[in-house]
Write a structure and sequence with these properties.
heterodimer, A: mainly alpha, B: Rossmann fold, 2 domains, 4-stranded antiparallel beta sheet, 13 strands, about 30% strand, binds adenosine-5'-diphosphate, binds magnesium ion
Amino acid sequence: MKLSAYPAFTATAFTSRLAYRNQVWSGVFGELVATFAFIAVWTAAFVGRGTVDGVTLPDMVTYVLIAGPLLNWNTTRYIREVGDAIRTGDVTTFLLKPLHYPALLFFNQLGNNAFEQLTITLPVAIIVAFTVGLLPPASLAHGLLFVAYWVVSWGIMFLIATLTAMLAFWLLTAFALDWFLRGIMAVASGAIVPLWFMPAPLAAVLGYLPFAWVSYYPSAVYLGKLDLPAAGLHLAIGCVWLAALAGVLTWLWSRMRHRLIVQGG
Amino acid sequence: MSPIISASGVGKTFRQLKRQSGFGGAIRSLFSRDYSEIRAVDGVSFAIEPGEAVDYLGPNGAGKSTMIKMITGILTPSAGSLSVLGREPHANRMVNAREIGVVFGQRSQLWWDLPVRDSYDLNRHIYDIPEARFADNLAFLTAMLDMAPYLDRPVRQLSLGQRMRAEIALALLHDPKILFLDEPTIGLDVVAKDAVRRFLSEVNKQRGTTIILTTHDLVDIEEICPRLIMVDDGKLLFDGELKRLRATLGSRRRLILEFATDPGPLALATATLAADEGATKHFLLENETVSLLDVLGELGRGHGLKDVKLEEPDIEEVIRTFYQNKPKLAAAL
Ligand SMILES: Nc1ncnc2c1ncn2[C@@H]1O[C@H](COP(=O)(O)OP(=O)(O)O)[C@@H](O)[C@H]1O
Ligand SMILES: [Mg+2]
């Protein structure tokens, strides 16, 4: 299969989701409730205080939207589907085709997430912008860097989710792994509490783990909490993580394929 | 012509970790290196010529799916050698994949939430099928398989029979040289089975596509494939035409005698009692030369015989006899 043909999977995933378009309403509603709940919590925390550690309430409202609906990628469905395909052996039907399975997953999940960003994140962002108000990026350069961070965030989350689903092949349960991952992501990605409000030793450790590139660093860069050299440096570190995780995935997939063709699906 | 598929002494042994029962057993098996071996395929050899249609028949667990997986390159043989289109299948997975089509009766390759047509379009990308060729094939398959009414319906709304036809079309869109079907008629009703069988035979004759079909369903056989490969317990039992199988086994015709009232036990020299339902008795004729008259002559008058029916042996009968006589035959063949 030619590389130029893979985007067909993106389109397929996108149109598949249209079949369940009534789920969009509950998705938007759920995200809105969660977003306004977090905004309420931060509003309460900021009562009587203009800034906390150099962070303002409008900063936090914008952080909630970016780290939450925008970058807290929904992978539950994806991990379940891939985990099931692996557990039931359906994955062997993909081995029968002239294609690279992880690449198929990549383009497929791109379609899924594009669908969610357009139908759920965008409306939620518009509603929050017109009710509570959102800040623009700290500078044009920060805004441009943020776009690169956004891509890295998606890439890292795709790799972590795919690795999690593949572990189901050895551990035989994608469900428990998904809960485990969600627990880790809730803390380590900074989706709920930014690293700057965490105890210093914890923040220091989490600041080096790949999860922080999913929600925390992109949001912090958007808000200008990292100066441009620091933002550039962390983008480079994020890319190193991306390459490392891609390497692990390639290795794990080749081991899995080997096991599949020796021991059967 | 050289064979399109050849298997020589092919074997597959699965190693399975021995699991012990209970919680303690589960913990122990985590550390155990105790394996049991399952010989799913055991020294099977055959050669298939281009354009042939072959039935790969055997009861559940006989090793049919394992064989199909090895020929299609998604499982490595643990013994012997395999060649498909001149290549070793598992070492050439990508190249091989372009030239074969595979249908698994128990696994769908269609995209569940999308209209059937969209899965076909995706295959056009996967296999780089030229636009015109794709349109031709789709038109041919749609007409032959009568798929026009549901081409635009999502797969999840199709009946099993419709879905299976759609799966077969999917596997044929890229003009594969060989089509493998693993239990394609499983779960289908008689009408749907018939449609599938007639279509496959048509594709084999018209397009010259080599077809290998596995089944444990005896009724599948006669219609599609004149050649039969029978396996059991991983081993090859018979390879040849159905006619030869019949001849080898001798056809035992079935004679059904219906009496007005139960005549009591009956024993004959020319036929063996197969089933006794009181007033209705089934006999199997001993051999080709015994005629109906011989039996009736032996039976004589005075039993209140009401009706007589003579049936040709059906294939189930042939194969049942075959499995019953397996040890004897294995020695003779
Ligand atoms: N991946 C596997 N691991 C262990 N044993 C297997 C595996 N796949 C099949 N078997 C065993 O091999 C034998 C043949 O299986 P299979 O080829 O699926 O039979 P069939 O398709 O004829 O019903 C069975 O005993 C089955 O349990
Ligand atoms: Mg099988």
